[in-house]
Every structure is written in C-alpha cells, then in structure tokens.
Design a protein that fits this description.
Elements (H helix, E strand, L loop, with lengths): L3 E4 L2 E2 L5 H12 L4 E9 L4 E8 L1 H18 L15 E10 L3 H19 L2 E6 L10 H5 L6 H5 L19 E6 L4 E7 L4 H11 L4 E2 L20 E2 L6 E8 L4 E8 L7 H14 L4 E7 L4 H14 L8 H12 L9 H4 L1 H8 L10 H8 L8 H24 L8 H36 L6 H42 L5 H26 L5 H35 L2
Parallel strand pairs: 5-7, 6-7
Antiparallel strand pairs: 1-4, 1-5, 2-4, 2-5, 3-4, 8-12, 8-13, 9-10, 11-12
Helix pairs in contact: 1-2, 2-3, 6-7, 8-9, 13-14, 13-15, 13-16, 14-15, 15-16, 15-17, 16-17
C-alpha cells in the first residue's frame, strides 16, 4: 500500500501573499504532492502550509519550499508575535499511512542534511528526529529566537545537527522534526456554560487542573518549592483541552488537541469526555473534527464502537466510517463528508485515472470482453480470489451474529477482519496486474536507436517482466491464504451458509491456478532463468497445496450439507 507522510512547514511571512504564493508554487510543481492548506497570520507574520504525499516527493517539495523561502524572506527585517528563528522556522514530517515513525525520522534527517549542505542553513532536529534528549523539545531548539541565534551558534552545546555553525543572517536557522499526527477535535455539550466545559476539559487533559488546598475551586493554590503551581494530572495522555462557548452554534464545547493519536485516539478521547460530562450532569451531543484526519483513525474508531456492541469488526471500510461518524456524532453540527475530511480520500479524489475495481459488474465484464488486452486473465484471477475471500468473510459475519452464538462473536469477528484484509489486497491486485502489463508495454515503447538506448530498453523490459511475474504470484499467495478462512468457516461457521464457503473455495482455487498460468507465461519471456525457475517452483508448490486444501474444504462442505435437517 502507498506510504503517505504529511509536512507542515511554517514560514516567517504572513502578510505578503505574493511571497507565500512563490513558495507554494514551488510545492505544487512537485508531482505526487498535494497542497492541502495555506494558513497565513498577519499578527504572527507567519504562514503554516500543509502538504501530503509519498515520502520522497514530500521531502523534495519541502526542500524546494525551504530553498525559495531562503531566497525571498529576509529575517533581518522580520517582526511578528510568534517565536521564530528562521525564514522556514519549523518543518515537521508526520506519518499518515503505511509508514512507521522510525522511517519518518530517517526522511526528516535526510531533509535536514540536504537543507544544511545545499542551502547553508543551520538545522536542528527536534521531536522524534532529535539526536539528543534536550533537542526533542522545539522550545529548547528555538530558545533565543533569531535575535539570539549568533550567540547560540557560538556555543558548542548548540552546534547545529546539520549545516554551518556560523549565522546565515538572511535565512536564520530551521528546525526539522518528525512528530505524530495532531488532531483538532471538539466535543459538543448540552450546556452554554464555559465554566462547566472548562471543568470537564481539566478533568481529561494531560496537564489537568491546579491543585488547591481544601476547596477545589476557592482553596489556596498549591505551589512547589520553586514557586510553581502544582497540577493534578487529567485522565488522558497527549491531550490538550479547554472549554469554550461557540456563539455560532449556541453551545459550549471541549476543544482538544490530540497530540499523539497513537496514545489517545479520537474514540478514547470522546468516550472519556462523555464519562466526565455525565459525572457533572452534562450530556455530550456530538463532536466535530477541525481539519483532516488519517483514515486509520476513523477505522479504529468504528471497530472500537462495534466491539462495545459485541458485533463483528470485519465489515467494509465505508461501514466502519459510518459507525465512527454516528457513534461520535461527527455530523451533529454539520454534515460530515469523508471525502473532504479523510486525508487518503482527499488525495484519491485528485487521481483522475479510472480503476477497474470502480467499474460496475456489467462495466467490468464489458471492458474484459472488449478488444483491449487488459484486463486479462491475471486481473480476472485476482477478482475471483477477492470474491472467494468475500464469501468467507460473509460467512464469518453471519456466524458472528447468529442467535445463540453470542459467546463466539469474537472468534468469528477475528476471521471476518482477516477476510476483509485479504479481499482488499486482492482488489488492489486486480488493477495492479493491469498496471504490470502496461509497464511491459511502456518498456517496449522505449527508443532503441543507440547501443545505450538498447541496453536501457532491454533492462526495462526485463524488470517489467519480472514485476509481471511477481503480481500474479502475489495473487496466488493471497488467494491461497484465504483458504484458511474458508476452511474454518466450512468447519465452524453457520451451517446454513456452508455452501457459500464451498463456492469461496472454488473461487480461491480458480484464482490460484489462473494466476499460475500468468506466472508461467511471463516467466517464459525473461533472461534471468534462475529467477524464473525459482518463481515457477514456488508457484507450483502453492498450486499443489491449493488443490489439496480445496478437496478438504469441499469434503467438509458436502458433509455438513448431508447432515442438515
């Protein structure tokens, strides 16, 4: 699956939009990156830009933006209310989908090094990208701001992680980091009281509330030996919160920043606010998301609320989102549009290419029956595998909700979740098989006039042909994996649906053997015979095991059918 990261560079210019436009133009010129938001502030004289895309493209866009900012922003003339130390003040990278924090850190440091080496700007790495504990905190890295930067750089303790140790007077310094995704999340209350909303906010936020002697409201504030206020921690980690009244809606809200949704996800924050509000005689009526959210966060929320109902979690993506939206009342104040609020969906909307999986059943069949060579047998094999996995998932879901089987819902839910993942993988491979075919066609269309061009073309054809072997081989592996699900459903699932498990096994067998034909025909056309022979041998083993597994499943299915009364 595609890796996605977000980058939120902050530039020290918020009043002259012609300057900001020059920077964002550089970002938008990088293919594979989406400019999601540009948020200028006149008082702070600062603009926050949000971009998202695949990692290599995002750090290229970020570098080009930092470079342009260094050319057109002069820190010697900058004034603003917000702390800052450079033309590009901070540049955090945030993992969004299918990428770990560790990988994101490596990208952040790669970007930091390039800024230092190529632009001559001093760079400090902060948050998860920090090399030392004292540099994790952005405030430490930025202490002294631009005005104190020359003195700071002369201190060996604050030698930059990358770039020069002398002051770049025009551009200042930049902090490049890797941090978790921050979600702005507001919970709606059936009260107009800011004071009561604040009480709930103090109950849940990590910082908590000020500790007092005696009466928790009017008592004397407790201070430590240094004279600092002592706080009673709230119940949620990585959460900042405050209560306020929203005149537009006529209600009070708990406004939260979830600074690490891996520690406190949106659904946990929502439920905790519900609990604390109820204890104070207040009811939560819904919530709202400010800005965008990763898909996984809403899918996890949907599963959380389904699990509370002891219902199968193995439902499709759209159903999980619907459950999350309704459970948290995300549509309480205004309609919630997943296409506008979920990062991955917003990016997908920019992709105008039509996918096979988006066709209607009739349209897919008509496209297959046309004169076009794709989709071909490989895509059809993947589709057959997806149908098999879907049938197994259906039996698991039906069994999870079968009357009298309530104590077994978790067992079937686990199988249904596995089935959904297999189905999604195989649907991806429906289109990827056609993409693999197109890669071969593209390779054959490369020029071949010179000897160098011939060598490049030959290698491109070889690489594309290998990929065209790997994709149907993946179809074989994934479809064969679905047979474990189908076997379990034939044995343990709802007896009235056992024939569906049997049909699923037949689909899986078709997928495995059909994809095997594609492995063999594509292997015949490559020069690397060791690779070809190894892939065919491994594929043959899967095919043989598939036939044995299919026979076992069908025997079980027929046995159950014969014993039905």
């Amino acid at each position: 699956m595609k890796k996605l990261i977000e980058c939120v560079p902050n530039f020290s210019e918020g009043r002259d939009m012609t300057i900001i436009k020059q920077i964002t133009d550089r970002i938008e010129a990088v293919e594979g990156v989406k400019l999601l938001d540009v948020d200028p502030g006149a008082a702070t004289n600062r603009t926050v830009v949000t971009i998202v895309g695949s990692p290599d493209e995002v750090i290229e866009a970020a570098f080009q933006a930092v470079k342009k900012a260094s050319e057109i922003i002069d820190m010697r003339k900058h004034k603003g209310e917000h702390p800052r130390m450079g033309a590009t003040d901070v540049c955090p990278l945030i993992p969004v989908a299918n990428i770990s924090m560790e990988e994101t850190v490596e990208y952040a440091r790669k970007l930091a090094k390039r800024i230092g080496d190529e632009l001559g700007i001093s760079v400090y790495c902060y948050e998860n990208a920090a090399f030392t504990p004292e540099r994790k905190n952005l405030a430490n890295c930025r202490s002294g701001e631009y005005e104190g930067l020359a003195e700071k750089l002369s201190n060996p303790q604050w030698k930059p992680d990358f770039g020069p140790v002398s002051l770049n007077a025009k551009s200042g310094a930049t902090a490049v980091g890797a941090r978790d995704f921050l979600v702005a999340f507001n919970v709606n209350l059936n009260t107009t009281s800011t004071r009561r909303a604040n009480s709930i906010a103090f109950d849940v936020r990590e910082k908590g509330r000020v500790k007092r002697e005696g009466d928790p409201i009017t008592g004397k504030i407790v201070k430590d030996e240094k004279g600092n206020q002592v706080f009673i921690p709230g119940s949620l980690k990585a959460v900042k919160a405050i209560g306020w009244f929203i005149e537009e809606y006529g209600i009070a809200q708990i406004s939260m920043n979830l600074t690490n949704i891996g520690i406190t996800p949106v659904h946990v924050a929502f439920d905790e606010v519900c609990k604390k509000a109820e204890a104070r005689g207040i009811r939560v009526t819904g919530s709202e998301l400010v800005g965008l959210i990763p898909l996984k966060a809403l899918l996890d929320a949907g599963k959380y609320f389904l699990a509370k109902q002891q219902r199968s979690l193995g439902v499709d993506e759209q159903e999980l989102i619907k459950i999350a939206v309704k459970s948290m009342g995300l549509d309480d104040l205004k309609p919630f549009d997943p296409q506008e609020k979920i990062i991955e969906y917003k990016l997908a909307a920019e992709d105008k290419s039509k996918k096979l999986v988006d066709f209607t059943v009739k349209g897919f069949n008509n496209e297959t029956a046309s004169e076009s060579p794709a989709p071909g047998g490989g895509s059809i094999a993947a589709l057959a595998g997806a149908l098999g996995a879907s049938l197994g998932t259906m039996v698991a879901n039906l069994s999870s909700h079968k009357r009298g089987w309530d104590d077994r819902w978790q067992y079937f839910s686990d199988w249904a979740e596995k089935g959904q993942k297999l189905k999604d993988q195989l649907l991806f491979l429906v289109d990827e098989d056609t993409n693999a075919f197109n890669k071969i066609m593209d390779a054959f269309s490369l020029p071949k006039k010179t000897e160098a061009e011939k060598n490049i073309r030959k290698q491109a054809i070889e690489d594309a042909s290998k990929y065209a072997i790997e994709i149907p081989f993946k179809v074989m592996q994934t479809s064969f994996s679905s047979m474990e699900l189908l076997e379990a459903m034939a044995k343990d699932g709802n007896p009235n649906s056992v024939s569906d498990a049997g049909v699923g096994a037949l689909c899986a067998r078709t997928a495995v053997l059909g994809a095997f034909l594609n492995v063999k025909i594509n292997a015949a056309g490559i020069d690397d015979k060791d690779f070809a022979n190894r892939m065919i041998a491994e594929a043959q083993k899967i095919a043989d095991e598939c036939m044995q597994k299919e026979a076992m499943i069908l025997a079980q299915v027929n046995n159950v059918i014969q014993n039905l009364k």
